[in-house]
Amino acid sequence: MEKKKEEATSSSSSKKELIENLEEVGKFYFLSNKYKEAIKEFEKIIKLDPQNVDAYYNLGLCYESLNEFDLARQMYQRVLSIDPNYKLAKEHLDKILKI
Amino acid sequence: MKKQILVVGLGIFGKNVALRLAEKGADVIVIDKNEEELKEIADQVAQAIHGDATDERMLRSLGINDIDVAIVSIGDESPGGVGTSILASMLLKEVCNAKRIIVKGINRRHAEILYRLGVDKVVFPEKEIAERLADTLIHPSILEVLALSPEYNIAEIVTSEKFVDKTIREIDFRAKYNVTVLGIRRKMPYIRDNGETDFEEKFIILPSADEEIKEGDTLLIIGKEKDIKEIEKI
């Protein structure tokens, strides 16, 4: 029983670590104007954690930077459906929708 | 001196014109019959007047007689609606001495009558937006187009992947594509101390030949319409 619990904790901490690493790499690409590469990293995070708002927000930024406004809108809307108080996502969504 | 602008009718068009003009520093007076609409923007404009712009006595009672531009955005497709717009336009010229009158057009006949009566400009915002929307659906990479002449346009286009990481000199826009790059709109990503990411937009005017095109850049180019459409296919 104890062992299983330990394994579960260790697997959740390694998942957290993996997400942090992916986020770091994704942000590195984003900051280097390599948006398509960044998208790949943030999508990996979504696969591991489908409720990760920061990953959706960063995907929104990448799509917006690539002038893919429909996809960017979908990402920001996704962020706000999970966390309605995510201010930056709201600001970007308003800008895209021009409201 | 600040420009004094009168906006009649606070529908979506009238309201947004008024707000943008006020934001840009103009002295904006708005007139509408609907008090709720007036309340919504009253604190953002110089004066919000509740009244009917086709009522000559009401207009005279305002004592407004030095207007730079009057924008009329009232009326609908019905004969009465067309008449309302025409009457208000004429009264603004006569009573308020509007130097320039711009009217939101209802239909072709309405526009013809207005021009005959001396209105300076009739605009059809829905038509313009519809045409622009259709153009962007056919040419998704062309974001904006400004027609300079029947032949020449200035357009903002999304950069083709083929140009990414190459300099303007290497791409050789003028010789190979018959267009000149006037500017580059670029996203400048950044990260805050708390780890939040965001970007700013930077506009590079008349970029040098050594400027490298980056992913996501949009290019402001000048050239013949046919050459601009060609470059979009790349």
Give the arrangement of secondary structure elements:
The complex is a heterodimer of chains A (99) and B (234).
Chain A: H1 2-31, H2 35-48, H3 53-65, H4 69-82, H5 87-97
Chain B: E1 4-8, H1 12-23, E2 27-32, H2 35-41, E3 47-50, H3 56-62, E4 69-72, H4 79-94, E5 100-104, H5 108-116, E6 121-123, H6 125-138, E7 142-147, E8 152-158, H7 168-171, H8 173-177, E9 179-191, E10 197-205, E11 218-224, H9 225-232
Parallel strand pairs in B: 1-2, 1-4, 2-3, 4-5, 5-6
Antiparallel strand pairs in B: 7-8, 8-11, 9-10, 9-11
Describe this structure in words.
- The complex is a heterodimer of chains A (99) and B (234).
- Chain A is built from five helices and no strands.
- Chain A is mainly alpha-helical and 99 residues long.
- The mean pLDDT of chain A is 91.
- By secondary structure, chain B is α/β, with parallel strands linked by helices.
- Chain B has nine helices and eleven strands.
- The longest helix of chain B has 16 residues, at 79-94.
- Chain B is elongated, with a radius of gyration of 23 Å.
- The mean pLDDT of chain B is 91.
- Classes of the chains: A mainly alpha (99), B alpha/beta (234).
- Chain A binds chain B through residues 27, 30-31, 33-36, 57-58, 61, 64-67, 88, and chain B through 143, 158, 187, 189-191, 196-199, 214-216, 218.
Helix count from the secondary structure assignment of chain A = 5
- Count of separate structural domains of chain B: 2
Number of helices of chain B: 9
- Report the oligomer: heterodimer
CATH superfamily of the largest domain in chain B: NAD(P)-binding Rossmann-like Domain
Rounded average pLDDT of chain B: 91
Binned, the helix content of chain B reads 25-40%
Total strand count of chain B, please? 11
